[in-house]
Design goal:
Blueprint (H helix, E strand, L loop, with lengths): L2 E4 L9 H12 L7 E5 L17 H13 L3 E5 L17
């Protein structure tokens, strides 16, 4: 079993190249791994709830959903930027 661990990406619209790199990491390079662990602070702006549609949140969610739909297991541990994520966060990324 192979795993990829990432943390503290602080994705935001201010750095679109970093967001694109995240997409490539998860959907291209990530296909080489059985599971991906995101260890907090995925978002730069504080996440204010599962229904937050402030950019780039919908794009990040779409990337996560695409990754899980490809069969890769994604595990997410909340960082201080995601304290308000609700328990059903995984439902919108699967």
């Amino acid at each position: 079993m192979s795993a990829l661990f990432i943390s503290d990406l602080h994705l935001s619209t201010a750095q679109p190249d970093k967001l694109e790199a995240f997409n490539i990491l998860l959907n291209d390079i990530g296909s080489q791994f059985d599971s991906i662990y995101i260890l907090g602070d995925l978002f730069e702006e504080f996440w204010v709830g599962n229904d937050d549609i402030t950019p780039p949140n919908p794009e990040i969610l779409a990337i996560l959903k695409s990754t899980t739909e490809s069969g890769i297991k994604v595990f997410f541990i909340k960082g201080n930027r995601e304290l308000l994520l609700e328990a059903n966060f995984s439902d919108i990324t699967v």
